[in-house]
Amino acid sequence: MKVLSPILACLALAVVASHAALSPEQYWSYKLPNTPMPKAVKEILHPELMEEKSTSVNVGGGGVNVNTGKGKPAGGTHVNVGRKGVGVNTGKPGGGTHVNVGGKGVGVNTGKPGGGTHVNVGGKGGGVSVHTGHKGKPVNVNVSPFLYQYAASETQIHDDPNVALFFLEKDLHPGATMSLHFTENTEKSAFLPYQTAQKIPFSSNELPEIFNKFSVKPGSVKAEMMKNTIKECEQPAIEGEEKYCATSLESMIDYSISKLGKVDQAVSTEVEKQTPTHKYTITAGVQKMTNDKAVVCHKQNYAYAVFYCHKSETTRAYMVPLEGADGTKAKAVAVCHTDTSAWNPKHLAFQVLKVEPGTIPVCHFLPRDHIVWVPK
């Protein structure tokens, strides 16, 4: 057994003590004293401050209970895949499950005995299949377009509002216009404290224990969503990137610092108000924040806040001021990937932009609850 030197042992104890003694906000201030906290982080720390109904996580001796917000007992749970994703409303007992895809909607009734619902992410097409236990073809819905190993489904290409977020770097200049929809994630899962998150398993091998802690029925839509988030986190990184799934704010801070050294900025997209898709114009003041290295963290669908973070040495990040046709103003974070050679050739970006992997930088704006960490 390897024994730590007295100095290293003291440092290790200090790290444990700092996580235990400090709140997430205090830990941010301690580790990032000169870095303002982005709005996205504040909202996930305090989801009760957001306009939509929040998901609160209560930790007690009997395990972890997830409360999906205020309202009537028949209110139900909303679960997203990717950005817009799948809305799952578990209405009155026996009423079945309604799966809403994008804005058009697909109704799936699982109220009949033996019906069941199964959600599968992956496969050759790279999409998500929802199997309802009844005869007929599965319903294909969207996966996050920010997971670069997956191909896009036909449904995603036509219906996913994130399609509009992809563009070419040559179009990133004042005066350029784009039709955009900065959606707000209706899945309001909050951060768990570091010490709590560390005690909860996060592994495909421990799914029964995870489901038990969160009172999630195995085989349910929610169980499959959680299962697939863990699966994505366990997938190997694509060539040229390093990845990590942060299960607390503290672990996301630690990962970003470990990969970047000193962090200069942590930023997220901010929009004055929620609007439907309409034309935005890039205004003066585009700021390049980094020319090569960054850590980008994408919020995932889970019972509590989990971020899929990846570090790349071939990333340019920009802060882009936008003004909508109705006067709505936004400060959008744009990320441009200068090497896409390892991406799935059928990824959403290539199908939308009509370019080939590895030929030209591919850019995308980030949704409002994703975070870019920029080095000094």
Automatic annotation (TrEMBL):
Region (Disordered): 55-83
Protein name in UniProt: BURP domain-containing protein
Coiled-coil intervals: none
PROSITE patterns associated with the record: BURP (PS51277)
Keyword Iron applies: no
Matches recorded under PANTHER family: BURP DOMAIN PROTEIN RD22 (PTHR31236:SF2), BURP DOMAIN PROTEIN USPL1-LIKE (PTHR31236)
Domain BURP: 166-376
Leader peptide range in chain numbering: 1-20
Superkingdom: Eukaryota
Species: Gossypium tomentosum
Keywords: Signal
Matching Pfam families: BURP (PF03181)
InterPro entries for this protein: BURP, BURP_dom
